[in-house]
Structure formats: structure tokens, C-alpha cells
Amino acid sequence: MDLVLDTDWAEHWRQLVLTREAQVGGPRQDDFWERRAARFAFSMASQPDPLLEFLGRFLGPAKTLIDVGAGSGRHAFPLTARLDWVTAVEPSQAMREQIPDAANMTVIGAAWADADPAPADLVLCSHVLYVVAEPVPFIEKLEAHARERVFIALRDSPHPHPAELIAGPDRIREPRLRDCFLLLRQMGAAPEAWLHRVQVRHRFETLEAAVDDCRTRVGERWDEAAGRAWLEAHLRPGPDGSLVHEAGEIISGVLHWAPRS
């Protein structure tokens, strides 16, 4: 058996996602971001984002872009200054409420499977696929809506969130960029890859906010006393009064390709 050529990478991806779901206690609920959206936007505000710089050579004032799983608008909003139009697709109302207004941005409140945006020159999907158990139709739809290029951004290092460390080594890993590359090759796409190193830190407004976030992410294996003790020992006060987890350097990247006709 050839471990690369004879592996069903779609099934491999599916099992990673479903096994992680089982360890947490089921798939992510629709209200997962309801209490976390503002907290997520607060934490991301301090993170470096090389992706915006990388995208620069593909942008232009006459071009359009769809940001699939736009979250708090971390990419969609700044890209409005460099494009003719941006469409942000985001299913969470709490997340959508964090997206700043822009005259040349449409926000669609739907999951990608249910969204029906007009095609765009560029389609971006940044750090979304980790929880998608059926990646093939998701990616096929990304490609179908792109006239010029598709971009998928993912980590290629272990997830650095404190919850992953608290959950321990038995926690099954999430899909990574390398898994996506092999899946895309199985699908017949020939993506280019851009990798970069980034320093990651997580900010929490209070200890209780950190505990609440980690409790849900760890799921059924959460131990209240041990989890709280870990956070008390590893979070450090930030200059703005927040609590900071310095996660260190990880490798992240983008797979991008021209849609197949």
C-alpha cells in the first residue's frame, strides 16, 4: 500500500473532525460564538496577520472577493479598502455584529452550504475548515464561486489555544494545511502553498472569560479545578489589564489555485 496515493484523504479528514467532535461531546452548537464573538474579536486584535500582506499581489481596485466564514471581519473589513466589493459570509449573528460597516461590503448571514452569493474574482476561506466534516462539497463550492483564485488558510502546527493544552495529548488533532494539500490533490486541484511563521498570543479580558472559553472547547473532559489551576498558572497580565497566553511560534499557510474550468 502507498500511504499517500492509496489514502482516501476526504475520509481521513472526516475522521479527524468527527473524532474531535466526539471527544468534546458532539458537534459545535449553533450558539457556540454567541458568548465568544466579542471575546474572539478582542483577542484577534493583538494578533499579527501576514495573510493580508500575502493577498496584496492578487488584489486590485476593480476586483471582488468573497470571505467565507468571515467571523468578526478581521479580513473582510480591511480588504474593502483595496477591492471594489467584498461579500462576507458568516453564519453567526454574534460574529456578524462585530463586523464594521463598509459601503462596499455585503454581509450574508448563512452557513456556506446555504449561502448564494454572486461569483467573485477571489474567494477566501481562512481558518474555517477545521470543523467541516465534509470538506469536498465545501471546497467545490468555493471553487465554483471564484473566477480567478481560491485561497484556503489553515494552521500547519498544533492548535496553540490553551484548551488544547489542557485537554492533553489524547486529544485528536484537528486537520492541518498538509491534510488539505493532499485532499486538494485527490480532488484534482494543483494548489500553490505559502507558509509563514507567526507568534500567537491569546488575550482574555478576565480569568472567568478564559475559563468559560476553555471549558466549552475541552468539552466533556473538562476538569474545573485542574483547568482553572492551569490557566491561573499560565496566563500573564497584559499591559492593558487583560490576561495573556503566549502560545509561541506556529507555522500557518495558504493554499491557493486558479479554479478549474
Fold topology:
Blueprint: H1 9-24, H2 37-44, H3 50-55, E1 60-68, H4 76-79, E2 83-89, H5 93-96, E3 105-108, E4 120-126, H6 135-144, E5 146-155, H7 162-167, H8 177-187, E6 192-204, H9 207-218, H10 224-234, E7 236-237, E8 243-257
Parallel strand pairs: 1-2, 1-4, 2-3, 4-5
Antiparallel strand pairs: 5-8, 6-8, 7-8
Helix pairs in contact: 1-8, 9-10
Mass-distribution shape:
globular
Annotation, overall tally of beta strands: 8
What is the CA–CA distance across the termini?
32 Å
Poorly predicted ranges:
none
* Percent in strands: 25-35%
String of helices and strands: HHHEHEHEEHEHHEHHEE
Largest β sheet strand count, sense and barrel closure: 8 strands, mixed
Tell me what the structure shows.
34% of the residues lie in helices and 26% in strands. The chain is an alpha/beta fold. Strand 4 (120-126), helix 6 and strand 5 form a beta-alpha-beta unit. Helix 9 crosses helix 10 (224-234). The chain starts with 8 loop residues before the first helix and ends with a strand.
Keywords:
261 residues, alpha/beta, eight-stranded mixed β-sheet, globular
Structure, briefly:
The protein has 261 residues and is an alpha/beta fold. It has helices at residues 9-24, 37-44, 50-55, 76-79, 93-96, 135-144, 162-167, 177-187, 207-218, 224-234, and strands at 60-68, 83-89, 105-108, 120-126, 146-155, 192-204, 236-237, 243-257. Helix 1 packs antiparallel against helix 8 (177-187) and helix 9 crosses helix 10.
